[in-house]
Amino acid sequence: MASIDDASATPNAWFKLDRDVLSMGGLWTIRESARLDHDLRAFKPEGAGAIAMDASKIEKMDSAGAWLLLRTRRALESGGRKISNFTVPELYQPLLEDIGRGKCVPVERPPRNGVRERLERIGRATVHAGQQGYRILGYLGRVTVETIEAIASPRSNLRVAALIHQIEETGISALPIVGLLAFLIGVVLAYQGADQLKRFGAEIFTINLLGVGVLREIGGLITAIIVAGRSGSAFTAQIGTMRVNEEIDAMQTIGLNTVDVLVLPRIIGLVIALPLLTFFADVMGLIGGAVMCYFQLGITIPVFIRQLSDAITVNTLMVGLIKAPVFAFVIALVGCYEGFQVERNAASVGQLTTRSVVEAVFLVIVLDAAFSVMFSVLGI
């Protein structure tokens, strides 16, 4: 208990009962509130006479400490003890009055059942994931219909200027970061592959590993993840900010179709840009691998190119490029969908931007795994 008898052992916050005077002192702040709350709940003074509360030795007090002080007073009164005197530093009188007018009452937590709570949390997350998937699927249907109509009659629905702007933002502006990361991934892949294949005297097959790995899987997957973090989050933040500023409400009021104006240029622009970015990433990854092979294994560029041409075919490149438009469609769809789910506050923009990136990356990896299984079954 925080009550004391020896001043030399005084903790940061304390209280003690001396005859009929309950003295309190120290730092009655939120840092001490957990210990004080426990000790005050266990404090049961004996007797039925009047008691004085002397809080004049409190050095510092915040709202948590004030609430504990008032709760103690009410607990004593409800226990049949009359408060004969209540002394508090003048500095904290206004705080006590404000807390007292609020009539704060403690909230008793229900008894916890750890296993039950975890099961409930898993169940809620599962239901939420199912509902989220259902809503995104419905949104996919709407966007698909709008996209087909826009392609069928581009003059009436497709905004070419906005489309070109999105291609520039999602494609051209992303070239530096995509190229740099792809180059470094090519370097790492070649280095690790050479380090393992050296044990079997098969260093030359590092080029085969690099070519097939980058063109079929690594190049497209890494590019899609980068774009999901860069462009997908930007779509959510842009549309979400427009919802916060009520710009989307204004667009709907004047009769504009928000899917035509905001969603289609982003989806079609990314579908066009991502395959080009993937091809660029493939080239940069191979260049990075060639540089590492030259310095690590002494393989010259002509030898590298000759071995690479034997290891890969056009189909190897096309397998990676075919997946890119699908990844782009999913990334843009999720980014735009989450943008329209933003509530009218700034915190919601950040939360849903994070969610859109996580969902997009998750779906990209799931689709990549599905493509790998499908291509394996088809023998491609």
Would you mind describing this structure in some detail?
With 380 residues, the chain is α/β, with parallel strands linked by helices. The chain folds into 2 domains: 95 residues, Transcription Regulator spoIIAA (2-Layer Sandwich); 237 residues, no CATH class. Strands 1-2-3-4 form a 4-stranded mixed β-sheet. Helix 2 crosses helix 3. The longest helix has 40 residues. About 2% of the residues have low confidence.
Q: What would you say about this model in short?
A:
With 380 residues, this protein is α/β, with parallel strands linked by helices.
| Helix and strand pattern | EEHEHEHHHHHHHHHHH
Main sheet record: 4 strands, mixed
Residue stretches low in confidence (pLDDT < 50, at least 5 long) are 4-10
Number of helices: 13
Helix residue percentage: over 70%
Total beta strands? 4
Counting structural domains, the number is 2
Adjacency order of strands in the biggest sheet: 1-2-3-4
Percentage beta strand: 5-15%
How would you state the average pLDDT, rounded?
Answer: 85
Structural class comes to alpha/beta
- The CA-CA distance between the termini, in Å, is 73 Å
Radius of gyration, Cα only, in angstroms?
Answer: 33 Å
The global form is elongated
Furnish the topology, listing elements before pairings.
Elements: E1 13-18, E2 21-28, H1 30-42, E3 51-61, H2 63-78, E4 83-87, H3 93-101, H4 114-152, H5 154-157, H6 160-170, H7 175-197, H8 206-244, H9 247-253, H10 258-297, H11 301-311, H12 314-340, H13 346-378
Parallel strand pairs: 2-3, 3-4
Antiparallel strand pairs: 1-2
Give the key terms.
2 domains; 13 helices; Transcription Regulator spoIIAA; 380 residues; 4-stranded mixed sheet
